[in-house]
Specification:
The chain has 282 residues and is of the alpha/beta class. The protein folds into 2 domains: 95 residues, no CATH class; 134 residues, Cytidine Deaminase, domain 2 (3-Layer(aba) Sandwich), CATH 3.40.140. It has 7 helices and 14 strands. A 6-stranded mixed sheet has the order 9-8-10-11-12-13, with helices on both faces. A 4-stranded mixed sheet has the order 4-3-6-5, covered by helices on one side. A two-stranded antiparallel sheet has the order 1-2. About 6% of the residues have low confidence.
Length: 282
C-alpha cells in the first residue's frame, strides 16, 4: 500500500479539471525496544522489517549486524498498516545508538531532526580501506537498473529510491520510501536479512545526499555512493574523512566525483580539452 488515490482540481490556463492522483502514503511506525517507546519513524508502509533492521544497524542501536532479534508486529490500523513494532533485545547487544536515542519523532525527510541533542550528529570512525576501482560508465548504468524498479515513483512521483550493487554492477536490493534515508535503511536491512551485506560495494540513491546517508553507507562498509542530485557540503566532508567515493549529479551521461577520486577509472583517457575547471555555464 505505497500509494493512495486522492481527488483534486487541476487548474490549467483558464480551465478546471477534476483529477484523481496516486499519492505516496506516509504513515507513522512506532518502534518499541524492550517494552518502551524508542522512536517514531514517518515512512512509506512496506518492507517494515527491513526498515527496522537497517535502522538498528545504521544508527548503532545494536552492536552486531548478525544478531537476530525478536520482532513482533504489534498493532495495525483500520487500513491494515502496521503502526507499532515491538523489539526484544538483550542489554548486552545494545550499542551506543540506543543510549543516544532519538526523540519520539523521526521525520521522513531528515534524520537530524529527530535527534535529542545537536551533539548526537557527530560521528568519528576508521575510514573504509578499499583500493579497487570502478569504471565511471558503470555508475550511470546502475541508475537505469534502479529506475526499472521504481514502481511506486512511476505511480505517484513522490518516492525516493535506493539500490545496492556488487562492484561489477549486479543488483542486490532496491527499495522505495517517501524518505531518502528510509529507503537506504530498507536496502541495508534487506541485505542483512539476506546475508548479502558484504557483497555490496555501490549504493545509488535518488535525490540529494545528506551527511546521514554517508554514515549509513560507512557503517554498511559500502565504499561507493552515487546520487542523482547534489550532495551537501557536510556529506562531502564526511565522505572524504570516512573513505567513501561520492558521486553527484549522475544524470544525462555525466557524473561528478567529490571525494576519493583515486577509485575511479575511465575506459579511455581524457582528451586535453576535457581537463581543467569546467565552466558552469556550459
Amino acid at each position: 500500500m505505497a500509494t493512495r488515490n486522492y481527488e483534486g482540481k487541476r487548474f490549467e490556463d483558464d480551465s478546471v479539471f477534476k483529477t484523481v492522483d496516486a499519492l505516496t502514503v506516509e504513515e507513522a511506525l512506532q518502534i518499541n525496544i524492550n517494552g518502551s517507546p524508542f522512536t517514531v519513524s514517518m515512512r512509506t508502509p512496506g518492507n517494515d522489517i527491513s526498515l527496522v533492521r537497517g535502522m538498528l544497524h545504521s544508527e548503532g542501536i545494536i552492536k552486531n549486524a548478525s544478531y537476530n532479534f525478536n520482532l513482533v508486529l504489534k498493532k495495525e490500523n483500520e487500513r491494515g498498516i502496521v503502526t507499532i513494532v515491538e523489539l526484544t533485545i538483550p542489554e548486552e547487544e545494545l550499542g551506543e545508538g540506543y543510549s543516544n536515542s532519538r526523540s519520539l519523532l523521526s521525520v521522513s525527510s531528515c534524520g537530524i531532526c529527530g535527534r535529542t541533542e545537536l551533539g548526537d550528529i557527530d560521528f568519528t570512525g576508521q575510514s573504509i580501506k578499499d583500493d579497487e576501482k570502478v569504471d565511471n560508465e558503470l555508475i550511470n548504468s546502475l541508475f537505469k537498473k534502479m529506475k526499472k524498479h521504481q514502481f511506486d515513483f512511476h505511480q505517484s512521483g513522490g518516492t525516493h529510491a535506493a539500490a545496492a550493487f556488487t562492484r561489477d554492477g549486479k543488483l542486490l536490493s532496491t527499495k522505495e520510501d517517501i524518505g531518502r534515508h528510509n529507503a537506504v535503511d530498507k536496502v541495508i536491512g534487506d541485505l542483512i536479512i539476506a546475508k548479502e551485506l558484504k557483497k555490496a560495494a555501490i549504493m545509488t540513491v535518488s535525490g540529494r545526499v545528506s551527511y546521514e546517508i554517508i554514515i549509513k553507507c560507512f557503517k554498511a562498509n559500502i565504499p561507493f555512493l552515487a546520487a542523482v542530485s547534489a550532495p551537501s557540503s557536510l556529506a562531502v566532508d564526511y565522505a572524504k574523512e570516512l573513505g567513501i567515493t561520492l558521486f553527484g549529479f549522475c544524470r544525462n551521461g555525466r557524473i561528478t566525483c567529490y571525494s576519493n577520486p583515486q577509485r575511479t577509472k575511465l575506459k579511455k583517457p581524457s582528451l586535453p580539452s576535457e581537463k581543467g575547471i569546467e565552466n558552469k555555464a556550459s
